Amino acid sequence: MKVLVTGGGGFLGKYVVRAFLRRGDRVRSFSRGLYPELEQLGVECFRGDLTRYEDVLSAVEGVDSVHHVAAQPGFWGPKSMYWGPNVTGTENVIRACREKGVERLVFTSSPSVVFGDEPHDGADETLSYPDSYLCHYPASKARAEQMVLEAHEIGVLHTIALRPHLIWGPGDPNLIPRVVEMAKKKKLIQVGDGKNLVSVVYVENAAQAQLVADKALREKPQSSGGEAYFVAQEHPVYLWEFICQILEGLNVPKPTRTVSYSKAKNIGGVLEKIHKAFFLPGEPRMTRFVAAQLGTSHWYKIDKAKEKLGFHPEISTEEGLKILLEDLRKT
């Protein structure tokens, strides 16, 4: 089988690529940059832009399955920054799959597509999309997810949307390094009382979900396709306890200051207005979306992924933390 992974040079993408290689599949990667390390693994690398249909069409040629992992992440910036790659890019992937007769499309979505600013405690896939979003990233991913699910057609193109939450592990270029760096500079402030539960997923488990989703679409598209699935560890974690475990493992001071969620959200709203009004460069130190992510509970049941896809996280949170800390200590 030949598989295309968009964003194969990214954090999750590299793990997905390696997972398919271990399974014995031929793998093609589509990214904006060059990744010699993937070529050394025998990966066929295509370089292009998701917003250019001809680039996507060329990458999709001759593959059996597409795993659309590439996206523009973030919590700040204009709508155009996200809508192009995340919405137009996904539209191009769907169109190319149909034109080239690709059988399966697995889309990497996000739980943020159903997140407004209300806490989610043990929520499942019956959650509806909110009326409004706190930033453009989740709005763009929601539109992309809807297009992918609407594209599901038995005998033509079988689709699934996966919603991995807070992916972490060795090689993470953003989430964990950013938190550690802020803690080292003593700029990390705990938002909320520390009792907020969140879902997290170790990166190898997130990659595993891509494989089982692909298998489900191949073997039982009628019962598994056209639907979204939350992907996470077996149990949620207390976010700030989880963060402090990592900091302690690296001998980095834990945050000593706290701010209530409501205050952090208000500060975020003010900073957003100031940045927009004065066209300030960079990102606000706090936004409403970040405050909500740090200070509220948002954890999700994975029963549906277990039952319909056969997804069972192979690496526990404890084991994943051990691997992550060993990796971080080397750097």
Structural account:
- The protein is an alpha/beta fold and 331 residues long.
- It has a domain at 2-168 and 200-233 and 299-314: NAD(P)-binding Rossmann-like Domain (Rossmann fold), CATH 3.40.50.
- Helices cover 46% and strands 17% of the residues.
- It contains 13 helices and 15 strands.
- The chain has helices spanning 11-23, 36-40, 53-60, 79-100, 136-150, 175-184, 203-219, 221-224, 239-249, 261-278, 288-295, 303-309, 317-330; strands at 2-6, 26-31, 44-47, 65-68, 104-108, 120-123, 158-164, 167-168, 190-191, 197-198, 201-202, 227-231, 237-238, 258-259, 298-300.
- A 7-stranded parallel beta sheet has the order 3-2-1-4-5-7-12, with helices on both faces. Strands 6-15 form a two-stranded parallel sheet.
- Helix 1 (11-23) links the parallel strand 1 (2-6) and strand 2 (26-31).
- Helix 1 (11-23) crosses helix 7 (203-219) and helix 10 (261-278) runs antiparallel to helix 11.
- The chain starts with a strand and ends with a helix.
- The model has no long low-confidence stretch (mean pLDDT 96).
Features:
Rossmann fold; seven-stranded parallel sheet; 331 residues; alpha/beta; single chain; 15 strands; two-stranded parallel ribbon
Summarize the entry for a quick read.
The chain is an alpha/beta fold.
Our Rg estimate from Cα atoms comes to 19 Å
Instruction: Compute the number of helices.
Output: 13
Percentage of residues in DSSP E strands: 15-25%
Low-confidence stretches: none
CATH architecture designation of the domain at 2-168 and 200-233 and 299-314: 3-Layer(aba) Sandwich
Average the pLDDT over all residues and give the rounded result. 96
Helix and strand content put the structural class at alpha/beta
Distance between the termini: 37 Å
Strand order of the largest sheet: 3-2-1-4-5-7-12
Name the helicity range: 40-55%
Number of strands: 15
**Secondary-structure element order, N to C:** EHEHEHEHEEHEEHEEEHHEEHEHHEHH
Main β-sheet description: 7 strands, parallel
Shape: globular
What is the fourth-level CATH superfamily of the domain at 2-168 and 200-233 and 299-314?
NAD(P)-binding Rossmann-like Domain
CATH class descriptor name of the domain at 2-168 and 200-233 and 299-314: Alpha Beta
Query: Can you tell me the CATH topology of the domain at 2-168 and 200-233 and 299-314?
Result: Rossmann fold
